[in-house]
Amino acid sequence: MSVLSSTSLAYLGFSEVTGQHLNYSKFWNVDSSKSAIKQIKLSSRTGMLILYTPAFLAAFTSFVLFPHKYF
Fold first, then answer.
1. Which segments cross the bilayer (predicted)?
2. Separation of first and last alpha carbons in the chain
3. 20 to 30 A Cα–Cα from 14, which one of 21, 30, 64, 67?
């Protein structure tokens, strides 16, 4: 895991230095040079809902299926 983490961190650092950014920003439309590319834009609230809903459902299901093992 350490080798994998170090390799991916080195790759991401190198790509940032060469100008290939991850395209994440709180202020998405600051760079108008990429305005010709169509991108899906989500609000932060919608993105977090999409990201955290599967984990919430898995945790809730585990409490429903095995209610007495946790208390």
1. 49-66
2. 34
3. 30
Query: What is the C-alpha to C-alpha distance for residues 62 and 70, in angstroms, rounded to an integer?
Result: 10
Residues 6+ away with beta carbon under 8 Å from 21? 15
What is the pTM (predicted TM-score) of this model? Answer: 0.42
| pLDDT the model gives residue 41 | 80
Distances (CA, A) of 6 to 15, 16, 23: 14, 15, 21
Give me the torsion for CA of 21, 27, 29, 33, rounded to 10°.
-40
Identify the pLDDT of residue 71.
Answer: 54
Question: Which pLDDT value is given to residue 6?
Answer: 94
CA of 18: how far to CAs of 1, 6, 9, 15, 51, in Å? 26, 18, 14, 5, 29
